[in-house]
From TrEMBL, chains A, B:
Pfam families: PPK2. Residues 33-259 form the Polyphosphate kinase-2-related domain. One of its GO terms (biological process) is polyphosphate metabolic process. This is Phosphate--nucleotide phosphotransferase. It comes from Nocardioides gansuensis. It comes from the Bacteria.
């Protein structure tokens, strides 16, 4: 199922119509929730093994790394995806950056300034919880930048991402796609369950009122930045288990595609074996 | 078993004799490897729940956080502990810092300069993979600082850690305790298994030749910095499963001891429910 799943999630080139992409489907996977959870769990060992190879490779000076970009409307499950899919990977090799509203210092710089600082070092699986895409999403919907600046940013993003890819970064861009109805259910749950009150922000309802403007901003951004080097994946995310499975599978397929080998020793193994065996007694 | 395990690992005040502490025991735990692995796995849900409460609490302005300090000889399993015990926690809430030999810039500053910059923000479980203790361990064994400076550092560390604790940091200091024989086996495995060559560094054998000097440096450091506010735990670590279980249990007991509650809403819940129900249709 695995290749099928990844292929079907890859956004084809051209105009994007989000309302034509189902949010509650499980494309490329034959099975229900418990099968999906089991399939994700079963990935753990291979994910872990391949990630360790990537981690090892950095010791040879290789520039390769992964950057998972998570975008989606409020409640679409960026946090849950990190917990359940990224959580399968050794935390030593993971670097998560959550982008909030830019600070005054950040606003005084080009929009990519703070992003560049957060690009993962070689060997890491970096995760962007929101990203430079906010600068063409909320920035567009909320008029936080002039139209000509927003327009400029699509190209700047493509140039930036092409530069990352050329520098050894495997980009995995995911839009977690939920329906307006599903968002309502999830916000309701955050209001009904006192253990989830801390996740709710009254401002979320102000953003929700602009749902269609956001969907349109996503459609434009997805189309304009769906490059060959760094394509988008639209993940049906009403089913949390499918969302987690899909992102786990994308990470796994990305690692598989890197043909990762264990580094060769840069020392004389036999000599070191002799040193260990014959070396001075520990003192 | 759990309280027993934590209590027994806590280093009592006074002089420390590492050779009197067994490295291959499993104190406070009745069971073998598979029981231990199952017990660690079984902790996952509670660990995850409590860590999310800590994470939630930060939204209220609480300063509380955890800092796990991992020290130990080469091959003692700092990496494995992070993978298997810290790996049970949501990676969003984890910040790992690995301290290598200080850079020239870092050496020009007080030894705590780079450490302070890595103290986790409120809400996080921070992990130090090596730490400021290297500045009284390798620094002592390798004469990297004058004796009077090493001497000064024990007090500076106690002051620094007391300040952290006063600032809301729950410190969990662990020395992963292995035998010289076990280290030899593990280095041998790194040499015998080509998939582990990348983990081996010929310099490890130079350090191994100073085993007893390191043990002595540890004994002094442990005694001098085993404060009430930030006590040490010596973890028998020849058994990897026990080491992982013990550190997992220490994290769990620390979180349990924090009496973490879900934050209360800082908004009118009923008003927001009305807004969600009656609000403008999404547009």
């Amino acid at each position: 199922m695995t290749d099928a799943l990844t292929d079907v999630l890859r956004l084809p080139p051209g105009p994007v119509e989000l309302s034509a992409i189902e949010t509650d489907a499980a494309p490329g996977f034959d099975g229900g929730k418990s099968d999906g959870e089991a399939a994700l769990f079963a990935m753990g060992e291979e994910l872990s093994d391949l990630q360790e190879r990537l981690w090892a490779e950095r010791t040879t000076g290789s520039p390769r790394r992964i950057l998972l970009v998570l975008q989606g409307m409020d409640t679409s499950g960026k946090g849950g995806t990190m917990r359940h899919a990224v959580g399968l990977i050794d935390p030593q090799g993971v670097r998560i950056t959550s982008f909030k509203a830019p600070t005054e210092e950040e606003r005084a710089q080009d929009f990519l300034w703070r992003i560049r600082k957060a690009v993962p070092e070689p060997g890491y699986v970096g995760v962007f919880d929101r990203s430079h895409y906010e600068d063409v999403l909320i920035a567009r919907v909320r008029d936080l930048a002039p139209p000509e600046e927003i327009e400029r940013r699509y190209g700047a993003i493509n140039d930036f991402e092409a530069e990352l890819v050329a520098g050894g970064v495997a980009l995995v861009k995911c839009m977690l796609h939920i329906s307006a109805h599903e968002q309502k259910e999830r916000l309701q749950e955050r209001l009904d369950n006192p253990e989830k009150h801390w996740k709710f922000n009254p401002g979320d309802l102000d953003e929700r009122a602009r749902w269609h403007a956001y969907q349109e901003a996503y459609e434009i951004a997805l189309e304009r930045t769906n490059s060959e080097a760094a394509p988008w994946h639209v993940i049906p995310s009403d089913k949390k288990w499918y969302r987690n499975l899909a992102v786990g599978q994308l990470l796994l397929d990305t690692l598989r595609g890197m043909d990762l080998r264990w580094p060769e020793a840069d020392f004389d193994v036999e000599e070191q074996k002799r040193r260990l065996a014959d070396g001075p007694p520990v003192r």
